[in-house]
Amino acid sequence: MSSNEGKIIKKSASLFSLKKLMHTSPFWSLIFWALVWELIGRMGWMTLLPPLSQIWFAFIELLELASFWDAFAMTARTFGIGLGLSIVIGIPIGVLMGISRRSDKILSLWVNLFLSAPITAVIPALMPILGIGDATVIATVILFSIWVVIIDTQAGVTHVQNSLVEMGKIFGCSRWKIIIWIVVPAAMPEIITGVRLSVVRAVKGVIVGQIVIALIGFGGLFSTYLSYFLMERFWALIIVVFVMSFTIIGLVELLERRIAFYAKSR
Amino acid sequence: MSDIILETESIGVVYQQSVVALENVSLNIPSGKLTAILGPSGCGKTTLLKVIAGLIEPSTGIIKVKGQQITGPGPDRALVFQDFALLPWATVLQNVAFGLRARGIPKNEREETSLHYIKEVGLSGFEDKYPHQLSGGMRQRTGLARALTVNSDILLMDEPFSAVDEQMRRKLQEDLLNLLKIERKSVIFVTHSIEEAVYLADQVVILSGRPGSIADIVYPEIDRRGDIDSIRRQPRYIELVDEIWGSLRSYVE
Questions:
Q1: pLDDT at B157 exceeding the cut of 90
Q2: Strands B34-38 and B186-191
Q3: How many structural domains comprise chain A?
Q4: Inter-chain residue contact A171 with B89, CB threshold 8 Å
């Protein structure tokens, strides 16, 4: 394990080494498109697309706005609570569906339905029930992210080597101990994959939720900037949201790699 | 003949109301001896072992351990698995200690016991390795050590050496015989190898195929007290392998 950890630390360290970064193509691609953006913006063909340098100044301005930090705090809060609930509720449901055929029969249709359903359409229906505030956004995050946790946990649990479960029985483990000591850890690679995918969906959920409601958080800011034609701030906010999503997803992938080593050895 | 530690009385297993896996298997397992269950693949020998282990409920018949009927797994029987059944996220020590942990033995005590058996199966120095860092033979030694820690009288082994290569299998067989000289266990050993059965067993139960039932029981009576290297050169060994093949070949298409 220690050798594995060593490798990962090395890899993540190299991410921050500028020298290495310069030699990787995404960096140059980023520079190239930033330059294209800057040029098109400066030509002034489209008022909707200001030059990137002005967006940078708008970003600095954003950081000084209380409304930005309020929106940021709300996003972080609703994202955290929603994702947390998805994981805490989703994993046990997935385990249940993996070990009991009856609960699988009762639930799988609904889980699969919601997994692919356009959840955005449901948000307006949530507003009269949960009000315009954190609760609706949290519900949106959960509706976006919980299904994939359930599906992946179930897949992991149903693929646990049968002999491991038998081994637990042979040594006198109760059903509960078999689940906690054997089934859940054995399904961990799939569970982590489910969590990673649910993080991606939760990021979408938290932003989509705020935008559909359009009065709170980043959604409120987006609609304000658009209606007052503050395009620099609008774009700065979009970039902030993109970078945030990217960072969170990157962190989860790092975590997943730590777990992956025993997925191969099964 | 020595005492009987385990007996099966007309065991039958039927899957899905129609597939008969085992039919009328009545068997006596002598105490302190090694019994091999031998048969072609698909003859139900693993099913029989799992019934004895308490993992599969028989459709008919009962099993008695020391005269008491059993209804599921119990501390009197430990199983060594064909695919090792090791926890990939746990070290050798943690894997070996699993059975004791399940029984609520405190950490210090279970690690002490585990280290003793890790040494006995020849895995000293590998306590902190993970299963994926071990060879097949070492993984099965881990599985064996785990089965030994719980100190069951009966050791069930389900084709334990079939997933390792030929040289390693020979080494493991020799080591098992040496180990059984120290640990007095009653062993039930499932195998598809005639040579392995004759080499190891005091009693060889030959199962016929579909539905599995006892075709014959052979008592090798090979002298294993001396040098185990010489077993394969004994005329009795060669004779028996031939004889068993003679009776088995009719069941193999």
A1: yes
A2: parallel
A3: 2
A4: no
φ/ψ of A144, rounded to 5, equals -75, -40
Range of the structural domain that residue A42 is part of = 1-49
Query: What interface predicted TM-score (ipTM) does this complex get?
Result: 0.90
* Mean pLDDT, range B68-87, rounded to an integer: 92
Quote the CA–CA distance of A202 and A82 in Å, as a whole number: 8
B186-220 per-residue burial string, b: 16 or more CB within 10 A, e: under 16: bbbbbbbbbbbbbbbbbbbbbbbbebbbbbeebeb
What pTM, to 2 d.p., does this model score? 0.81
Name residue A232's amino acid. Answer: E
* A141 and A39 both lie in a single domain: no
User: Would residue A106 count as lying in a domain?
Assistant: yes
Residue pair A202/A79 in contact (Cβ under 8 Å)? The answer is yes
Interval B196-213: pLDDT, tens: 998 899 999 998 877 888
CA distance B166 to B192: 14
Interface test with A, best of B96, B98, B129, B156 (most A CBs within 10 A): B98
**A214 lies in the same domain as A178:** yes
Say which amino acid occupies A7: K
Render pLDDT for B217-249 as a digit per residue (tens, 0 to 9). Answer: 988 888 777 677 778 888 888 888 888 888 888
- The domains of chain B, with CATH numbers, are 4-76+153-251 (3.40.50.300), 84-151 (no CATH)
Q: Which residues of B touch A (CB under 8 A)?
A: 50, 53-55, 72-75, 77-79, 81-85, 87-89, 98-99, 102-103, 130-132, 150
B7 contacts B61 by C-beta, under 8 angstroms: no
Residue A171: which of B72, B84, B102 has the nearest Cβ?
Answer: B102
pLDDT digits (tens, 9 = 90+) for B32-74: 889 999 988 778 889 999 999 999 999 999 999 998 899 889 8
